[in-house]
Model the fold of this input.
Amino acid sequence: MKKTIALIVGLAVLGAGLLPAQNLLDNEDYRRAVDLQRMAEEAYNDGEYDQAAEYSAEAEEYFERSVETAMRLREGYRAENYRSRNERRLTRARDRDFHNLFPDEFDEAQDLYDEGREYLDADEYADSIELFRDSIAKLDDIDALYAEKDVLPRYYTVRLIPERRDSFWRIAEYEFVYDDPWEWPRLYERNKDILRDPDNPDLIHPGQRFEIPEREGEVREGEWDPDD
Done:
């Protein structure tokens, strides 16, 4: 009898190690097992050995069920953690315009995430974790592709150059901009709202900060530094 009660105590310790205390309190099987364990100990101390044995056997069953429930809940928390990580990575990738720079790879990562959500909603935790991990791996691949690209400046500040005054035509001609003066309307359309006379593309002033729109396949970040 003492061995049986000791076994139940051991199961209780195992269950407690699987999840935080609050989650065990939310485990109905665990709570019932604790009550039965207490009842078995009280019956044993009162000399009601047959009743104590019955309580002990029933408590053991509930503890085993509670451990199974706890392990499943833990797997659910793991799956939710991977989902959250995956979602943050997708948001960051979208913020960095990866869905336009690497549309095929990004769509694959998004599809894996969406499928993982479906499995998570169906409580298929192991499959959902695998899909979330595959999606994160695909986003790692996109990061590597991005690192291989040449990063061009996104912003250019108009300079005072007496011998060759800045204009949209000449700015577009810079190699680090478009290396093509005929692309000047692209610059003008993006930045005309900050001109003193938005209808006059010829009137720009030193110190004005222009954004350089990306063309397909380009990666642009940060300011152009004339000292680089």
Summary: The mean pLDDT is 85.
